[in-house]
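Cross-posted from the bioinformatics board.
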Amino acid sequence: MSAARRTIGFKLNGEAVSAEVAPHENLVEVLQGEFGLYGARESCGQGLCGCCTVLVDGRAVSGCLYLAAFVDGAEVVTVEHTASEQGLDAVQEAFIETGAFQCGFCTPGFVLMTRQLLAENPDPSEDEIRHYLSGNLCRCAAYPEIIDAVKLAARRRKTAP
Amino acid sequence: MKRPTQPTETPQVGRSVPRLESQQKVTGRAEYVHNLRLPGMLYGKIFRASVAHGRIRRIDVSAAQAVGGVYRVVTSDDIRTLLPEPYYGPAFHDQPILAIDKVRHVGEPVAVVLASDPHVAEEAAHLIVAEYEELPAVFDEVEAMTSKAIVHESLKPAGTFPDLKHLKGRTNTNVALDFHLRRGDAERAFAAADRVFEHTFRTQQVMHTPLEPFVSVAEPRESSLTIHTASQSPSFVRIELARLLGWPENRIRVKVPFLGGGFGAKLYIKLEALVAVLALLTRRPVKVSLTMEEQFFTLTKHASTFRIRSGVTKDGRITSRQCEVWWNGGAYADIGPRVTQKSGFTAPGPYDIEHVAIDSYALYTNLPPAGALRGFGIPQLVWAYESHTDLIARALKMDPIEFRRKNILREGRPQATGTPMQDAAIDKVLERLGALLDWERPFDRGSGTVRRGRGIAIGFKACISPTTSVAMVNVSADGSCIVYCSTVDMGQGSDTAMAQIAGEVLNLPAESVTVVHSDTDVTPYDMATLGSRSLFHMGNAVRLAAAEARGKLRALAAEVGLSVETPIAEVFRKKYGMQAGNVIGTGSFIPSYTPPDYSTGLTPDATPFWMVGGTGAEVEVDTETGHVRVARLVNVADVGTPINPKIVETQLSGAAIMQLGFTMFERMHFDAAGQLRNASLAEYKIPGLLDLPREMVNEAVVAEQRTGPFGAKGVGETGTFGVSPAIANAIEDAAGVRLTSLPLDAEAVYRALRAAKGEPLPEG
């Protein structure tokens, strides 16, 4: 606990920031404690549920297992980051329209993973959706609606100008 | 988000309004207690018992106390300087805030370390040492009936429930409640029956696993206490803390934002009494957040054993049924005794049976406590009676739908308690299930090593009674509306439903209505968000409150000489000379109820409404591996008239998928010493996207609950009822083996297949 804190600098949702972190602190703790961002949240504590999903240099990581010190110099994106100044992106809109959440605790993780899925594969099949998102858990089991949301977002992105 | 506020003639109920809080949830900004940090806050980390049953010899906290940054270590000795009797519970005052003298299950809280840095508190908690004199323990609910291992020295029923009074001070027993029902003469009817069938079914202990683990914060004020907690029952928390502290209710304020899932786990007192005493001892805000692992030691779902016996005529009429149910309540009663009675009386199923005998027992054991989990005991009962029903139909060579058609309870007929069935569309659910499954069409039974089968099951539940809901509806001077109610939105969409009901009465778009979250200083009393009761009870209270507000608005218009069609803002302007004032309507709702007679269990008015749910399953069984794939799952329910059809559909679907986990793989593994072997998501698997049936259908039949708000009734649990037996029935249909214990995992199926071939595998 007494280990020296060090200052790290990184880009958070497009903005250059710095933070003092202890070696044992994980990314979720720093996002919550230093930046008031609660969208990534610890649930299982083992990187198995996806509630703590954060994008680091464009790749989804489990923020509850990812040491904060490792984001020094990296680009960090959380669910709070929106593509436009205001409003929601196609994925978030699709989640609302299809009713793809209930309690909402896992939703940020699903939104970020869906964005990453559609960036890699703009037209995923249902099997590909199930496999790609299988690392995210939803105890309310809004899974059928989540599949619908991903399909709807994919369609919207394709037809978007 | 755009919030239309213009008055509307469009009906607000029956419309699939997206959840009011949608935008907050998809942007990660919804408020949970999980997010709360207060200045000067201490974090508490719990040190837990390592034996299942033991007398505490010594607790050594010196090493923990010596860790730099530790503020204080607290044991029950410290708590008793504040409260001489620190025991809580909704049915029994049996649960100590921290263990006193004895521990009764592995993982029971024994001490707490407080520190400003949660990592310091965690590290220090590892340094606490406790020594126990181990006592004989009991884990099985049937053994607990006669075991020499006694979990509680004497029973301490809470004063709240009259039917528990006779248990006060009873010693040398693990029976926390016994419920009995006698209707007709079951024994004589068995003697007269053409055939008598008897089977025993078991269910395993499982856990709710809300993804937001239990979390509570207490904030001490000058002469009051504010509790921020992820609770389904803020009013109960306030009343129970007031009792414990000897304070009036108005010195305790309980605030609940959104819950990250509840499912029955976050009811009554969980961490609230602990954080309250820690805050009073330290005069600092205190937060306790459990880990996923710790949730497994906090509350679970009852394991159960159900012996069921039926007398049947040769043409397939059930004439008598005897039900003996043993509920494994774990070390503390929680709400288990309510499950035993309030669910126990539906144990014979939704069937019209003249002679019924029920004996239902809540047992203490040395396992983590069990309480309510999405169905309040009903899924355990339906598992048994619908497996049994299927076995009888098979033995009589009758079609399982035809056999049920012959026996189901029809409108107006008396249920086991004698209460006549009203607005319970059992027949419609059964018939629709058959239609959606194409039951009359030839079914592909598979070939080679993959065999296909199908099965159905129907179940019902009586809503718990009598319970009270109170609501307020405030119409502001511009005509906008705020609903105040203590129903907790834990994902079921209650905010949206209440806004739809208020909007319907006041001709306002639901999207324009604000629903204030539970805050016992602000929102009126509500019994709790549980048992699918809120839409019916709170929905009725909100409807009444909105109607009262509407009446007052009309009176106000008349008073100032304006017509009732005048826009509300104009009425207020005329009355007060400016945009000022408001109109408040209140509504309270408690349904009629007659408690069951203690000796016979009979009552003419057992419940305000019945929930009916049925499931059909089509499965594929790999006879080489025992692996079962659910190809198609069809859920049909009587939910009355849906307020929000889309949310109703997702409630049915979510409940069915949750029950699919309890059916196919979820199970808490205890070793012979009562140690839990799989307290993490790595080893305790919950359903993910790859576990979904390939096809799911969820449907509400056309129905009306005439006493409900706009014809509606509760739906949160209904999707769970039939899932487990429908799949077991389908497995027998596919592969000719009958499983009588949950879960129906590949090992269990494979063992049954080997046993059926006369080549059983060795146990263990």
